Amino acid sequence: MEAKDFLKYKNWVVAGDVLNEMKYAGRIYQKLNRRGYHVAGLHPKEENPSVFKSFQEMEGEDEKYEVLNLVINPTRGLEIVKEAEAYGIKMVLAQPGARSYEIQDFCVKHGMEYVEGCTLVELSY
After folding, report:
1. Which Pfam family name is an example for this entry (predicted)?
2. Each residue of 67-97: pLDDT tens digit?
3. Which helix (H) or strand (E) holds 5?
4. Eight-state DSSP code of residue 97
5. Which of 94, 123, 125, 104 is nearest to 32 (CA)?
6. Distance, CA of 19 to CA of 67 (rounded, Å)
7. Torsion angles phi and psi, residue 61, rounded to 5
8. Model-level pTM?
């Protein structure tokens, strides 16, 4: 599977500073929204109620999320991927700067599709 293949799925979680449009997470979050995707923002330290702090907070949502887009430092990203796996996420797209061997290894060992790519590039086609 390649990064472009993830765009077939319409329910995404973007992990990172999604409320800051100057950051890549914010740009990705906004662009997916504008394209009609069902997108949730996730950041463990965010105090804004429009952004989830964990996957546990998503349990009551009507639709199940399918893709996790990591735009966060790899140390925090690994913990988020572990939560995502428990939630039922099967696809992880890791942006440049959010990648690590540990994240990739965890995904492989837990049957999650792991791809390194750039969502903004894929959305530009």
Report:
1. CoA_binding_2
2. 999 999 999 999 999 999 999 999 999 999 9
3. helix 3-6
4. T
5. 123
6. 19
7. -65, 150
8. 0.94
**Tens digits of residue pLDDT in 107-117:** 999 999 999 99
Burial label, 23 (beta-carbon count in 10 A; 0-12, 13-18, 19+):
middle
pLDDT band of 26, cuts 50, 70, 90: very high
The amino acid at 3: A
Three-state SS for 33-81 is HHCCCEEEEECCCCCCCCCECCHHHHCCCCCCCCEEEECCCHHHHHHHH
- Give, for 13, the enclosing helix (H) or strand (E): strand 11-15
Query: Domain residues of the chain, as ranges?
Result: 3-123
| One-letter amino acid for residue 79 of the chain | E
| Residue 101 tokens, joined | 């061997």
Joined together, the tokens standing for residue 86 give: 């428990």
